Amino acid sequence: QRQMCIRDRLSELLRTLGVLDVQKMNIHDKVKEVSTQIEVTKKELEDEYGQVNIDLTDGSYAEIEKEDDK
């Protein structure tokens, strides 16, 4: 009886671990998707404003100084 309970508990934990692995893979996919969206947005902003540093807290931006500008 006791061994059966322990085996059942192990099976339950292994199933839970499998579910967590699937959730982890789904989160990795979402992180990749958001990273891609960030890169697309950065490219759009660069096309519109040129190469600038944008402060995401207030939306201000400043030109990036090139080495030959210094």
Written account of the structure:
With 70 residues, the protein is mainly alpha-helical. Helices cover 69% and strands 9% of the residues. A two-stranded antiparallel ribbon has the order 1-2. It is rod-shaped.
Defining key terms:
1 helix; mainly alpha; about 70 residues; about 70% helix; two-stranded antiparallel ribbon; 2 strands
How large is the radius of gyration?
25 Å
Structural class: mainly alpha
Number of strands: 2
Uncertain regions spanning at least 5 consecutive residues: none
Give a short account of the largest sheet.
2 strands, antiparallel
The number of helical runs is: 1
Q: What's the rounded overall pLDDT mean?
A: 90
Order of strands in the sheet with the most strands? 1-2
Q: Could you say which overall geometry the principal axes of the C-alpha atoms support? A: rod-shaped
